[in-house]
Write a structure and sequence with these properties.
By secondary structure, this protein is α/β, with parallel strands linked by helices. It is 44% helix and 15% strand. A 9-stranded mixed β-sheet has the order 1-9-8-7-6-4-5-3-2, sandwiched between helices. Strand 8, helix 14 and strand 9 form a beta-alpha-beta unit.
Amino acid sequence: MGADDQLSGFNITLLAMSDNVVIERLKVNEFLVRPLKNEKQQLPLVSFLSLNQDGIKNFTVTSNDGLKIYAEEVGDPQKPTIIFLNGYSGTRLGWEPQFASKSLREKFHLVRWDDRGCGASESPNNIAKYNKTDFYADDLNAVIEKATGGNQKKKVILIGWSRGNLVVLLYLKKYGQEKLAGFIFVAGLIEVGEILPAAAELIPSTLSDDLVTVVNGTRQFIDLFSVKPLDPRIKTFFLGGAITSPPTNHQGSTAAIFGYAENDGYVNVFRNITAPILAIFGAHDRLINTPITSAKVLATNSRATVIIYPNAGHLLFWDVYEDFNRDIGEFAGKIFKDGN
């Protein structure tokens, strides 16, 4: 079976799971299966890090409960700001292929940060510091305020990966959309039922108090990230970031963030977004059910455009980083050209 046949089958699957609203929107090409210009094997990690040291500055903000959040920025702060949010137990460094992009660095002010309990942010071993949804909304708000220099008129584009999208929605629920210019929704979900069984079965092991259990479960979880074999250095890079987070973070944040998904909490927030939305998925995502989630995105918010990369997985911004960087750059450029 050729690539075109596989894509055709994928679209048929999507349509079978969609309602009439989505089918009508597909007819006007708002759903795109993006043809790839670059299908290279992932570059070794060093290829990104060697490009990425120049010009990066760091800052720390204090969230409402006093916890310190670490962030980094590159590019001119007077230019349009894009703020990156990492996924479950990840760190800001997951966005290396974007921070290493000369084009993105020249056109935009890029900001990435570590969730509480992750990376260089403060990581208390106390579940009470992780088990409320307001914590995550407040942390992002503090980063936004610092990144925009307190300019209440400056809007930002928020880009989340996987669970990071839910943090964006928690922020919008609490603080509203006044500062939102656009939302880039990467390999995300708006309902917990969109997590595929292979990934869902591994989550309990990542919540364990036993380090060996956490390492083994996290290693298997990371194996699901990419459609391509991960360079060993990239795999170790993601594993190291995940297992340095205390168990209380995994336990408390999972209960709080995924718990809010009950009773369509995130669906309702997503439905009410008035800013442009770009949702990007990998056709071969092994964590998120791409056909169901992409159809739900289109059915839930009429402002959303969906792109699916045919040869990418959950880690699509590494799998096909050049295509990904092109698409987010075009999306952000159009938004700010239109006056945000």
